[in-house]
Amino acid sequence: MNDHPPAVETEDLRRFYGEGETEVRALDGVSMRIERGEMVAIMGPSGSGKSTLLHLLGALETPSGGTIALAGRRFESLGERELTLLRRETIGFVFQFFNLLPALSAEENVVLPALIAGRRDDATRARAVELLERVGLGPRREHLPAELSGGEQQRVSIARALLLEPELVLADEPTGNLDSRSSGEILALLRELNDAEGHTIVMVTHDPAAAATAQRVVFLRDGKVAGELLGGDAQQVSEKFASLETA
């Protein structure tokens, strides 16, 4: 029996923008549970609420109602400083456009979260080097982002997300700005990190092939959960996604 709380649990999660006739219900009662070590893809048509869900899970926005818990810690019970620490040290972010600082080397970009957290020790620097080796960029750690391909920049972004050993990694369209070959490599890397090292990963994507690499795919439509599938079958995921777009 697993006595640990899930990595992520939401109940009746809501996020509304505006009010009255202009109110937009971006999320309208999402309840879900993601176990530790699970890799889950979130899919849905444009405007379905998937990016809003990711922002709420990352404590980047405040819900209008409902609850979020990360490893049993309920967000609504945390003050602003505690939420900042949670976001900085417990959650890793991988963005579509990499968000690397152009004047910093790959290694310096990876180390940046530790510097912001006030950590400047040799062990942190050594971990950054180790992570760059892990993602296949050891020989290129002194290169600037402009000297790296898109796929290599995303590898730097993944290494940065893992630096502080987060409990949860949130990936927002991690292959959306890459060619098909680089996309395949990044997805394989994320799945390997999930399989071999047990990182809990939640990935928003519009690509059925990308979603199928996850263990589970959760579909959203109009701010609500519209079903889920086990990963592995890109055709099945594509058909479900198409049915939501045309419904």
How do the helices and strands line up, and which of them pair or pack?
Layout: E1 8-17, E2 24-34, E3 39-43, H1 50-57, E4 65-70, E5 73-74, H2 80-89, E6 91-94, H3 106-116, H4 122-134, H5 150-162, E7 168-172, H6 180-197, E8 201-204, H7 208-211, E9 216-221, E10 224-230, H8 234-246
Parallel strand pairs: 3-8, 3-9, 6-7, 7-8
Antiparallel strand pairs: 1-2, 1-4, 4-5, 9-10
Helix pairs in contact: 3-4, 3-5, 4-5, 5-6
Task: Order the strands across the largest sheet as they lie in space.
Answer: 6-7-8-3-9-10
Describe the largest sheet.
6 strands, mixed
> Uncertain runs with pLDDT below 50, 5 residues or more?
none
Written as H for each helix and E for each strand, in order along the chain, the element string is EEEHEEHEHHHEHEHEEH
Mean pLDDT: 92
Number of strands: 10
Radius of gyration: 18 Å
Fraction in beta strands: 15-25%
Shape descriptor: globular
Distance between the termini: 40 Å
Number of helices: 8
Structural class given helices, strands, pairing? alpha/beta
> What proportion of the residues is helical, as a percent range?
25-40%
Q: Overview of this structure, please?
A:
The protein has eight helices and ten strands. The protein is α/β, with parallel strands linked by helices. A six-stranded mixed β-sheet has the order 6-7-8-3-9-10, with helices on both faces. The chain has a four-stranded antiparallel β-sheet with strand order 2-1-4-5, covered by helices on one side. A hairpin with a 2-residue loop joins β9 and β10. The termini are far apart.
